[in-house]
Amino acid sequence: MSQAKISRVDALEQLKAAVAAFIDDAKMALGAVEMETRRVVDRLQREQPYYWNQQIKNARDEFAEGKASLARKRLQKTDNYIPDTSEEEKAVRRATAKIENAERKLEAIKLWSRRIEQSWNDYQGPSGQLADMIGGTPARAVADLNRLIKAVDAYLQTQAPAAPLEAADEPFREAPSMARPAEERPEGEAKNESPDDDNAEEP
Asked: Where in the chain are the domains?
């Protein structure tokens, strides 16, 4: 079975630095998203409804005043005189349009408030998991890497040096030949001859 060969922890230290930088960025991003979301929700659920309700109130007051002016103008009518009520009628129409517009705005605000609230609930699940991972001091991910680095460093400090080769472990070497060179052979000892040379007929 193959074994891991670890010689240094530099790569783990670099990874820890990168993870720490990511954690800082992630914390800032999560905080910015939450702050902006709460600002929008507060604007939709508090500021905008208050504003448009005030617009409705003002438009209704304007409508009532316009109706009263129109009624007074119509009372001026005689057999010989028909007053011009066009301006009063325009004022009433403007006030009516303002009321209708403000009511539409309020309905749109209610719709978007529900949509943002649903989106915020959907976002909180995964963002909560990320916040849990990068939370704490140090963050859980950095703490895990610190433990890993310490374990690897301890392993590097305690591993035994390589043992010298025993005789049985030496690589195989071919044994030297026992045959003597030709120049060391005694006289009369001929070169190796083929077994067939004894049976060869002389010419």
From this structure: 10-158
SS3 call for 45: helix
CB neighbours of 67 closer than 8 A, spacing ≥ 6?
A: 92
What does pTM read for this prediction? Answer: 0.56
Q: What is the mean pLDDT of the chain?
A: 79
Helix 86-134 and helix 140-158, axial crossing angle in degrees, nearest 10: 20
Angle in degrees, CA 128, 133, 139, rounded to 5 = 130
Kindly state the average pLDDT of the residues 39-46: 90
Q: What is the pLDDT of residue 140?
A: 75
**Dist CA 141 CA 200 (whole Å):** 91
89-120, pLDDT tens digit by residue?
Answer: 999 999 999 999 999 999 999 999 999 889 98
Q: How far apart are CA 61 and CA 65, in angstroms?
A: 6
- According to DSSP, residue 79 is labeled S
Render 97-124 in DSSP notation, one character per residue: HHHHHHHHHHHHHHHHHHHHHHHHHHHH
Residue 77's pLDDT is 87
**Cα distances (Å, whole numbers) of residue 136 to 58, 126, 127, 139, 141:** 52, 18, 15, 5, 10
Q: Assess whether pLDDT exceeds 80 at residue 13.
A: yes
Helix (H) or strand (E) holding 12: helix 10-42
- Residues whose CB falls within 8 Å of the CB of residue 49, separated by 6 or more in sequence, listed in order: 106, 109
